[in-house]
Amino acid sequence: MTLTDAEGQVHDTTFRGAPNGVPAPFDGGILVDALSIDTPADDRLDSAAFWKGEQLMTAMRTLSADGNRMEIVQTVRLPDETVLTNTSSYIRTA
Question: For labeling, which of 37, 41, 60, 93 is most exposed (least CB within 10 Å)?
Fold first, then answer.
């Protein structure tokens, strides 16, 4: 994934792992120290990010039955316990 922070700095990172739901060490600086990946259904891939054992972020990716649409629901828990959720839909065009 690639992101641009508030100062305009671009950051690139990749991750991979076994889809077993078990948090594995991850070098995410001061934001994330472990990630987990799980496949709770044939059409779904979930990931979660942790800091010192606390789950801070989740992403649930669900693929449509025809394989042409994917919905992603991302949830982040901020230090003040505020929870933010973003939902994105992607449609295959080619």
Answer: 93
Q: What is the pLDDT of residues 25-67, one digit of tens each?
A: 998 888 899 999 999 999 999 999 999 999 999 999 999 999 9
pLDDT, averaged across the chain? 92
3-state secondary structure of 2: strand
In a domain, 87, yes or no: yes
Phi, psi of 30 (to 5 degrees): -90, 5
Q: Which of 8, 18, 48 is nearest to 32 (CA)?
A: 48
Q: Which domain holds residue 62?
A: 18-91
Residue 77 lies in a domain: yes
